[in-house]
Structure formats: structure tokens, C-alpha cells
Here is the input.
Amino acid sequence: MTKHTSQVAILISGRGSNMQSILADSAQADCPYQVCLVLSNRADAQGLNTAQAAGIPTAVIQHQDYPDRISFDQQMQHCIQTHHADVVALAGFMRILSAEFVQAFSGRLINIHPSLLPEFKGLHTHQRALESGVKEHGASVHFVTPELDAGPIIAQARVPVLADDDVDSLAARVLEQEHLIYPQALRALAQGEIKF
Ligand code: GRF
Here is the structure.
């Protein structure tokens, strides 16, 4: 019997550098997952070009085309299910998801957040880390639950905050780590090493 390769849908809204690191990992011969879909809520997301160039199926579902969050989420759910995704990975996806959507993919929906959760939930994490004077910052991959940035943590990476850091230098140091831990977390999930 051939082993099922876990199918991953990636949701993006912009640059897509995490998506790119996942795509690069999925091209490795020993990778236990494949990317079956890159879905964006913005037609101008840069990551869509990268995905298309890599031959990955892409879709655009624009939130402003739907009367409410529920109908937008239902359309995304339908699209993800049509592509037979086992896992949904949010990678810079900038919309809040309804509890219904989260429930539909419970235990199979993960996100990367640029802070050491539970510190700095929400936006502008690097700015807030600098302002608060923490000596360490980082990134977290976590299961998504209906409460924003609050689900169980799967992986974290720590980086030092340096005296001369600004938002850009700190964000770049964190992003480098994001690109390592997100593929690792997906591998662990695909291999059944972690469960919700
Ligand atoms: C990353 O910092 C990620 O942690 C956050 O949004 C950013 C997305 O960057 N959720 P990219 O689109 O993956 O380059």
C-alpha cells in the first residue's frame, strides 16, 4: 500500500515568503506533504506569482465580493475541500476566520505568528516587542482555535533582540526562523508526530 502524502492548502494575503519556504521543502524527496493549493483573499498577493511559477494550483477568493464573513469562509472551505486538503496552513493570511471555518478544519488548521506566543498576540508584534524592552523575541507555529492567536503551540524559535534593532532588522531575524520552523511543523503534523 502506498503511503498517503498529506495535502496542504496554504492561505496567503501578500508576500508569501513562508509559503515559498514550504514549497521549497515540499520539493524535497523525503517530504511527507505536498502543497495542493495556494489560496489568496487578494488578487494582487505577490505570493500568487511565486506559486504559479512553481506549478501549484492557485485560487483567489476576495473577501469584499461576499456580503459577510460566513459566506466568504464557506466559499474558502468549499475551495479547500475541492482540492482535497488534509491540512490548512495560514501564512500571512490577514483575515479573521469564523468559528465555523475553524471548526470545519479543527486540528488540521495551523498558523505562523511572529512572536513568542502568548506574548504579543495580534498585529505589530515587532514594534511592540521593541517598545516593551524584551531581550528575546521570535515566532510560533500554532493550531488555530476560534480565539485569535491562542491555540496550542506546535513549534517556536527564539531570536535575541539587539540594542540597535529597529522593526525591520528584528522582523528579518524572526522571518529567517519562521522559514525554518513552519516546514518542520508541517512535517511533524504530516507524520502524525503531533496531534491537536
Ligand atoms: C509573517 O511574519 C508571518 O509570521 C505573519 O505574517 C508574515 C507573512 O509573511 N503571520 P510572508 O507573507 O510569509 O512573507
Summary: The first helix runs from residue 17 to 26.
